[in-house]
């Protein structure tokens, strides 16, 4: 069984999530429900959970401030939020998980499944990256966290040449290095990179950094030549988007 704690200041949200877990994720046992971050900290100390569902927006101490109180994070975290665009971007860039309220049962099942499939807990560096981005909102994002078989790698987005799909994995080709293999689909990596206008999906199997494109060769779809000499095919249905990005 997966021992879980739910921390949310709204009782109806606690009730709903606990019911969804009971119905759709029977492997998850809710050991405590907390209506404040302060009570949540005490529950974490007592219960030694495997998983925490943590509401972001709470009075007195929010979910992120709760994290800052922890000296060690030895469990998985799924953030829950109504909608905070910047916070969601920061969570996504840090390769952490979140659920939008009202929580959808399919998304909940997917989040629990992803957690059980991960070989490593999120790293301290990921949470530091998250909190740093939230503290300096106007500075913009410069790195993303990449989940790998060995753990997580924090990578500057300007180091990425292109991303290549390989079933449930993605090969991220970077400068001065062969590649980093991420334990994420290309769609998931694409979601992390949506903030950066210079990344564009040119094919169902490829996303490129436009800053690293040397030339575009016309054709039915055509292809691009990258700074490292690689050639990437452009699919016919994505050609127009690529040309539009060039003009921008």
TrEMBL record:
This one is known as Response regulator transcription factor
User: What Gene3D superfamilies does this protein's entry cite?
Assistant: 3.40.50.2300, LytTr DNA-binding domain
Tell me where on the tree of life, at the top rank, the source sits. Answer: Bacteria
Q: Is Nucleotide-binding one of the keywords?
A: no
Can you give the residue ranges of the HTH LytTR-type domain? 144-248
PROSITE patterns, alphabetized: HTH_LYTTR, RESPONSE_REGULATORY
Q: Does the keyword S-adenosyl-L-methionine apply?
A: no
Q: Fetch the SMART domains from UniProt.
A: LytTR (SM00850), REC (SM00448)
């Amino acid at each position: 069984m997966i021992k879980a704690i739910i921390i949310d200041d709204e009782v109806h949200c606690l009730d709903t999530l606990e019911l969804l877990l009971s119905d759709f994720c029977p492997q998850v046992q809710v050991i405590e429900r907390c209506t404040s971050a302060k009570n949540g900290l005490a529950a974490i100390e007592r219960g030694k959970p495997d998983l925490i569902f943590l509401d972001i927006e709470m009075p007195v101490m929010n979910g992120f401030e709760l994290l800052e109180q922890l000296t060690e994070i030895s469990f998985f975290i799924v953030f829950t939020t109504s909608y905070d665009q910047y916070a969601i971007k920061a969570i996504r860039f840090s390769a952490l998980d979140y659920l939008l309220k009202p929580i959808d049962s399919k998304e909940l099942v997917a989040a629990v499944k992803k957690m059980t499939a991960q070989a490593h807990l999120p790293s301290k560096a990921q949470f530091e990256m998250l909190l740093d981005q939230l503290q300096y909102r106007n500075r913009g994002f410069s790195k993303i966290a990449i989940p790998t078989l060995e753990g997580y790698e924090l990578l500057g987005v300007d180091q990425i040449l292109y991303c290549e799909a390989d079933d449930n994995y993605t090969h991220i080709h970077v400068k001065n290095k062969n590649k980093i293999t991420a334990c994420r689909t290309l769609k998931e990596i694409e979601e992390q990179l949506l903030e950066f206008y210079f990344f564009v999906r040119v094919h169902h199997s490829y996303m490129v950094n436009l800053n690293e494109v040397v030339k575009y060769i016309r054709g039915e779809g055509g292809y691009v030549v990258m700074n490292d000499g690689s050639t990437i095919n452009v699919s016919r249905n994505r050609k127009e988007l690529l040309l539009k990005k060039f003009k921008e």
